[in-house]
Amino acid sequence: MRGFMESWPPGAKADAGGPAVSGGRLLPWPGPDGGACYLRSDACDAMWRLADEMESVQLGMGRELLGFVRRTLTETAPSEPELHGMVTHLCTALSDALRVADSRGALLGLPGSSDRVGSTVDVSR
After folding, report:
1. Which of 13, 20, 28, 105 lies at a 20 to 30 A Cα distance from 41?
2. pTM of this prediction?
3. Residue 116: which of 124, 101, 107 has the closest Cα?
């Protein structure tokens, strides 16, 4: 499977960003080194479908999380640790959604898409 994917730039971390690989697709998961991972344009259709399915799952989970947070905030008064957990998960979901948007924008050739490709939100602090 490694032959179908490339990291950009080699050895970079996920928040380094970088240009889209010519004819490649930003995948919805990081590469083995934590950097942006691209699927070569000549990769098998099964890998493209897997990436599509993963993006769909990520966006669906983000929608469910947003609904949960909205309900929780209107029905209860969450504690500080609960709020911290919700914000952390929302940041992860937003990072996933932005990666999907950047990937799709780059595939469509939208201006500026490759400037953001591979960027992530650090929620570890």
Report:
1. 13
2. 0.67
3. 101
